[in-house]
């Protein structure tokens, strides 16, 4: 990177950090506020856009153990422990469910929601609950919503999202808004108070997501964000500024890129991976959890979070450059099974 390009990148990162402060997405930048929060041992919170919900900066993703058939007891243990630790945002999806040697993906779908259900039955009021529809039709999405509510043992979602909008759908967005399209289902569900807020998600292409949110006042956007993002089709550059401008809830995923970010001698700690994304103007980050120890470590990292400088962020971006293609598997730059 030339000096000119590096200076330009530094200026952009500074602008994004400042935007987060203005939007209330970095409320602990003040050292006194940060110190007070750390002394209390609380999970820092930020506004989830204009929803009125103050969300902890670390949230629970419904994949990993929680979407795995046969790990129901451990999943419930992880979910309960997360809520006990102060996590108040839970992300799942109708499509989440890990295939096995004997169970295909089509049959595994719904496992994550089913594993959340026994906890939501008793602790629903303690969390902001988000799920998703991977169907693009009105009828199909409404059927998925009914199934999601049953699996989650609740009568409403706080957030319902169009799941994983992909590059190949760029010229099909009009169909989302047709009479038989997914957006009609979204609006119907909101009108009938089956869901409170509406969002969209994606990890493959920032342009198609930006085009979608320009067409509809979504409340939330879940996007892929990590320290390797800048090296190919960056969400940070192409999508994040638009969501900040629209005052949307902003949730980051793929923070450690399924742990691949640690495998090449660059970024070696979860703290580095999380601090990079949390310095951006995001409401929260979600991570799938395999073990209670991982959960507790990540929550502590969030509690101890201190925003990075633009130069520190540049250093982390540099560390990922030699192996960014491997870290961008969800953008289609390396071999990886299709996922929702």
Describe the structure.
- By secondary structure, this protein is α/β, with parallel strands linked by helices.
- The protein has a single domain, classed as Alpha-Beta Barrel (TIM Barrel).
- Helices cover 43% and strands 15% of the residues.
- The protein has an 8-stranded parallel barrel, surrounded by 7 helices. A two-stranded antiparallel sheet has the order 1-2.
- The relative contact order is 0.15.
- The mean pLDDT is 92.
In short:
The chain has 340 residues and is α/β, with parallel strands linked by helices. The chain has 15 helices and 10 strands.
The helix content is 40-55%
CATH topology: TIM Barrel
Strand order of the largest sheet: 3-4-5-6-7-8-9-10
Number of helices: 15
Could you give the count of β-strands?
Answer: 10
Domain count: the total is 1
On the 0 to 100 scale, the average pLDDT is 92
* Class by SSE composition: alpha/beta
Give the distance, in angstroms, between the N- and C-terminal Cα atoms: 34 Å
The CATH architecture can be named as Alpha-Beta Barrel
- Dominant shape: globular
Q: How are the secondary structure elements laid out?
A:
Layout: H1 3-22, H2 31-40, E1 45-47, E2 54-56, E3 58-64, H3 72-84, E4 89-91, H4 105-108, H5 111-123, E5 128-133, H6 138-152, E6 157-162, H7 173-176, H8 182-191, E7 195-202, H9 206-215, E8 220-224, H10 235-238, H11 240-245, E9 249-253, H12 270-279, E10 284-289, H13 292-303, H14 310-320, H15 324-327
Helix pairs in contact: 1-14, 3-5, 5-6, 6-8
Tags for this model:
eight-stranded parallel beta barrel; alpha/beta; 340 residues; TIM Barrel
